[in-house]
Amino acid sequence: MKKGNLGLAVTTEAREFEESTVCGIFGCILKSGEAAPIVHVALKRLEYRGYDSVGTATLHENKLFIKKDSGKIDEVHALHNLDDLPGRIGIGHTRWATHGAPYQVNAHPHTDCDEQIAVVHNGIIENFAELKMELEERGHTFRSKTDTEVISHLIEEKLREGLTLVEAVRETVKRLDGSYAIAVVSVKEPDKIVCARKESPLVVGIAENAVYCASDIPAFLPMTNRSVIVQDGEIVVLSDERYEIRKILDWTQVTREPEHIDWSPELAEKQGYPHFMLKEIHEQPLCLRNTLRLQDQFLELMTTFLDRAGEVFLVACGTSYHACLAASYMFSKLALLATHPVIASEFVEQHGKSVNIDSTLLVVSQSGETADTLAAVECARLRAATVLGLTNVVGSTLTRVARVYVCQQSGPEIGVAATKTFTSQLSVLSQLALRLAKKRGKISHVEIENLEEKLEQIPDIVERIIQTQEEKVKQLAKKYRDKQCFFFLGRGISSAVALEDRLKLMEIAYVPSIAYPAGESKHGPISLIEPGFPVIFICPKDDTHKTIVGNIMEMKARGASIIVVVEKGDEEIKSLADDYIEIETGLPEVLSPIPYVIPLQLFAYYMAIERKCDPDMPRNLAKSVTVK
Ligand code: F6R
Predict the structure, then answer these.
(1) Is the CB of 7 under 6 A from ligand 1?
(2) CA of 25 to the centre of ligand 1 (A)
(3) What domains are defined for the chain?
């Protein structure tokens, strides 16, 4: 499995590993006027990529001017006036810390020892720890705990050797493992910005009186709609009204004319998707790849806590609770560990009196701020239980109160309905279960290798599901849009998927729906069934297959319309269904919730569209529920 430097932190010990992955970078060279206000408004337009810290650097009369701090752009601007920096060349950054607290010192731009070079970066430098050690041995002084700072010090060394800025950037990026989109300025060559890209997005904008670089087109769209997409492995030098692109590897020059972008600024922010929810569903392959870059030693530490626990509670609300429910099957099947998934708002009543020093809570919260979840944490802490956290927001309350926390690396989720953060949680939880299984010797080598291999493949599998099934799901939404109620059924780990799919459909398309473990449906709920009642079954080909066939027959016999999510080639189930969505074969049961939930996230989205509901802002809901 690929390992990087992402993702986990121990609240006290892990400050060494702070870094940011999902951020926005921007740069501009104006023919005349001040760059800083332009950088400021461009960063505002990139704020959807991250908003826990912000910073700007400008060049003026061979001097570097920098302002940066933690906080939202408006807050930092109110405090420091981000428009008040001299010079017509500037770079800027808006950060989403994925590890370590968002402190001023960790905000970008990052500089070299002499503060002659400034760098903004979006991505992950996987080998930064080695590079940092090497640079420190050669006398460099580091100010931050970020991965990015190694870049400015490496460039500093190359400039000292007499290389030009672009040569120095080229030699530096050759030493970096991981992903990056960077923009670099130096007082030694104060007329240019040098950018480079590998696996993180980078675009150039060309206007009459300016050139821009950015993580994304919306940053400069109000100024110009002429844009050049920078490809992986390319360096770009921006200078007065010019851009020059070269291949990092062989230094050949690339000729690429600007394209005309006809998106509105609003559409551009969603990268051409009509809603954030759809964009975030499509981002899942990328987010899942990030979850495979979590750092070994911290995953291991969390596993040790779980291994030593007398009892383990998996505590969360809503979608995060569904991830916990799925995780309880993972821990049980892989590590033979019985865990108790608990809805956070019930924790105090249900376990408040019995939780104790031998209890461990693995608390899952995308926002890290959900009031019910934090109340459960507080209750457990008062009784000396150990609290472990899995969250998407570094610096959130959960990261401060947990003994150990894991950052799931999903980047900001703007759509109110959780989608990409759910599958990322599942990926992290499955990795923890797998590690615990290894540690406890509960699983064979062959099984471990198979699971690790499949985990690696999950992002590609998810990508293929979206590509091949989206159109079909759209048609299903058209067919079923007027139905008044849906049933969602699954057995085993798929019952968690059924609950999550039900929640998605209810919360964004306002279709009252029911979800049960399929076996339970005949103990009452089946009385609702009458001809044409839509019942959605989630049926991967696992140990529950035979019994779910029986459950489908029960529903079919009463006239229900049967929609199934099945493994490709599962003719037995397909022959019973009115409609089916196919998932590729060969997925281990414990990983199946990740791919199987995807088509029904899309179904909920397209049902909302068909029913004229706004999927990004469902009524009565908030992204972070901070009241009990
Ligand atoms: C549903 C959804 C909510 C959240 C719940 C917990 O799409 O987003 O059910 O999952 O409010 O939020 P976090 O995970 O932030 O604690």
Answers:
(1) no
(2) 29
(3) 17-269 (3.60.20.10), 273-443 (3.40.50.10490), 469-622 (3.40.50.10490)
Active-site position among 2, 3, 23, 613: 23
Q: How far is the CA of 40 from the centre of ligand 1 (A)?
A: 31
- Whole-number mean pLDDT of the chain? 91
Distance 316 CA to ligand 1 centre (A): 8
| pLDDT at residue 18 in the model | 33
Closest atom, ligand 1, to C-alpha of 416: 8
The pLDDT value given to residue 97: 76
Integer Cα distance of 60 and 34 in angstroms: 10
- Index of the ligand 1 atom closest to the CA of residue 316: 16
Whether 268 contacts 203, CB under 8 Å: no
Give me the long-range contacts of 11-16 (CB less than 8 A, separation at least 24): 11/399, 11/400, 11/402, 11/403, 11/404, 11/405, 14/99, 14/100, 14/298, 15/100, 15/145, 16/129, 16/145
Kindly report the number of other CB atoms within 10 A of residue 481's CB atom. Answer: 16
21, 409 contact by CB (below 8 A) = yes
* Active-site residue, 198 included: no
**Which regions of 240-308 does DSSP assign to beta strands (E)?**
242-247, 253-254, 259-260
56 C-beta closer than 6 A to ligand 1? no
Over the chain (628 residues), the average pLDDT of each successive run of 10 is: 37 33 87 97 88 94 96 94 97 81 90 97 89 97 93 97 97 94 97 94 94 92 91 95 94 92 71 91 93 81 96 98 98 97 98 97 95 95 97 86 90 90 97 95 91 96 97 98 97 98 97 95 90 97 93 94 96 96 95 98 98 89 66
Side chain identity at residue 506, one-letter code: M
Provide the pLDDT for residue 413: 86
Q: Which residue is listed with tokens 């109160």?
A: 401
> For residue 625, what pLDDT is reported?
67
Q: Please count the other Cβ atoms lying within 10 Å of the Cβ belonging to residue 407.
A: 32
3-class secondary structure, 93? strand
